[in-house]
Amino acid sequence: MVAGIMLGVASALAAVVIADTQQAQIDLRFDLQRSSVAVIRANSPTPGGFDPDDLAAVAALEPVVATGELSLWTEAAQVSGSFRSVQERAAPIVVADPAGIRASGSEVVVGASATLLAMDSDAPIAWVGIDLARQLGVLPYVKASWPVDAQIVVNGVPFSVAGIIENDKGFGYMSAAVVMSRPAVLATLGGVGDNVRAVIDLRPGSAAAVADYAIPALDPTGRLHLEDVTPPDGEKLVKNVGGDLRRVGAALGLFIGLVGMISVANTLLMSVHQRRRELGLRSAIGWNRRRIGMLILTESAVAGLVAGTVGSALGLAAAAIWCRTQGWELIMAPTLPLLVIGGGVAASLVGGILPAYRAASTSPLTAMRT
Amino acid sequence: MTDHDGTPLIQLRGIGLEVHSPAPTRILHPLDLDITRGGSVTIMGPSGAGKTTLASIIGLLQPPSEGTYRFDGSVATGTSLRKAAALRAEHFGFVFQHSHLIEERSAAANVELGLTDVSLSRGERAERGHEALAWVGLGSIAQRRAGDLSGGERHRVAIARALVKSPSVVIADEPTAALDQATGQVILELLAGATGRGATVILVTHDHRAGEMADRVVTITDGRLL
Question: Taking CA atoms, what residue in A is nearest to B101?
Answer without folding.
Answer: A278
